[in-house]
Specification:
Blueprint (H helix, E strand, L loop, with lengths): L3 E6 L7 H12 L5 E4 L19 H11 L3 E7 L7 H11 L12 E6 L7 H13 L10 E3 L14 H21 L1
Parallel strand pairs: 1-2, 1-3, 3-4, 4-5
The structure holds flavin mononucleotide (FMN).
């Protein structure tokens, strides 16, 4: 059973819709699950020349925080049909040094978010490609493409009940998937 779940939000924007979706999912997690928000905004761009002893402090913070998680929920916007560079950078940082990939074997959930109708399909699948190589078992169904996101919220940034119910279904499938793996 999962006790600590990491959440990564691919958008760095203050009023990010993706972050609002992530926050709604976090609120739906069972009480026994601790949430760790994995911070990616201040990570120096991955560069093997910086892989010294010690490496950049922000890299160590992310690596330790991710290592403490039993599973990871990824929430990503779509940038040019892929994931934002900040998110890819965080994956790269956690994957190294060679042989010390902190993501390995942690069950993952991928949720893509967009104001557009396609729901970040391109980002969702680019992210899945990296997670396959990083050895993260990833929930296959239901797929989570949250399109037209601005139309799913009421005026107070809360998601309408039908959308919250959909989020609950996705989360429940993820938690059962993760429990089967443990
Ligand atoms: C550099 C850039 C590229 C974008 N490319 C796409 C795209 O490929 N598909 C899409 O649906 N939206 C795209 N958008 C629009 C984003 O979906 C929109 O800005 C969204 O609000 C970003 O997510 P956030 O609200 O969580 O920051 C792009 C936005 C930016 C800044």
């Amino acid at each position: 059973m999962l006790t600590t779940v990491g959440i990564i939000v691919g958008s760095l924007r203050r009023d990010s819709y993706t972050r609002k979706v992530a926050t709604a999912f976090a609120a739906l997690l069972p009480e026994h699950v601790t949430v760790k928000w994995l911070q990616i905004a201040d990570l120096p761009l991955y560069n093997e020349d910086l892989e010294t002893t010690p490496p950049p402090e922000a890299w160590t913070v992310l690596r330790r925080a991710a290592a403490d998680c039993d599973g990871v929920l990824f929430f990503t916007p779509e940038y040019n049909r892929s994931v934002p560079a900040a998110l890819k950078n965080a994956l790269d940082v956690g994957s190294r040094p060679y042989g010390e990939n902190v993501w390995a074997h942690k069950p993952a959930l991928v949720v893509s978010v967009s104001p557009g109708a396609i729901g970040g399909f391109g980002a969702n699948h680019h992210l899945r490609q990296s997670l396959t190589f990083l050895d993260m078992p990833t929930l296959q169904q239901p797929e989570a493409y949250i399109g037209n996101v601005t139309k799913l919220m009421d005026g107070t940034d809360q998601f309408v009940p039908a959308t919250s119910d959909y989020f609950k279904q996705i989360l429940s499938q993820y938690l059962s998937f993760a429990a089967k793996l443990s």
